[in-house]
Amino acid sequence: MASNVNPTVRRRRLGQELRRLRELKGMTAEEVAERLLVSQSKISRLENGRRSISQRDVRDLCGVYEVEDQRMVDSLMEMARDSRQQGWWHTFGDIPYSVYIGLETDAESLRVYEPQLVTGLLQTRAYAEALVQGALPETSTTEIEKRVQVRMRRQERITAQANPLRLWVVLDEAALKRVVGSRLVMREQLEHLIEMSQLPHVTVQVLPFDVGAHPGLNGQYAILEFADAADSSVVYLEGVTSDLYLEKAQDVQKYAVMYEHLRAQSLNVEASRKFIADVAKLYAD
């Protein structure tokens, strides 16, 4: 597989194009499903990029939409072929949040609000191991190690020399004071957090308890943005058994405004580093 082929992103772009063709034809997803003798949910999954798209699917849909430009058909067929390739994360087997990893791998910037934990891209190995063990107590040692390895591999986007991911993180004070693993693990984690926050493309702000009620009380979320204008921004909401991806412009805008309020209510960068350092000292005893 070519290194620049991201199957998740290819599926998104292809799905967006197929939705555009359907809307140009003035057809509903129900009408398309009826013509192809498939379920409406299949058409929806193809268009939102959550399902692999076969070349046969593309051929059938282009037939329904009466696409006469063969170059367009060929381009869509090629995208379908690329979308069925495997990303680096597939070598680790079944990863519950593989769609998110695919998006994160191709994102240009990421804004994250974390109310309870240090965000995955800034976790130390020891913190990540303790976190997975605590959050998933019935998980095997092998599975824990796999999840930690995937998390460490994801962090390469932060440390990459070329085109690193621009990361902005707002951490609730609770994330710093919840002891994950041990006091030693927490001290090392907070020291690592301070070190990473000094990278020019990484910003970390702390939202202290004394702020009171704020727009992030509903929970964790992330906003992914992409360099290619064809790729719409995505809001990611993590769930226990399933995740939610919001791509409608009005939904993304709502969360973006919420994030601006969170940043404004948080300590500035320097004050946040001092706050984290002071908490780290509490774990030195």
Automatic annotation (TrEMBL):
Domain called HTH cro/C1-type: residue spans: 18-71
Signal peptide: none
InterPro entries hit by this protein: Cro/C1-type_HTH (IPR001387), DUF5753 (IPR043917), Lambda_DNA-bd_dom_sf (IPR010982)
Pfam families: DUF5753 (PF19054), HTH_31 (PF13560)
Protein name from the UniProt record: Transcriptional regulator
Lineage of source species: Bacteria, Bacillati, Actinomycetota, Actinomycetes, Kitasatosporales
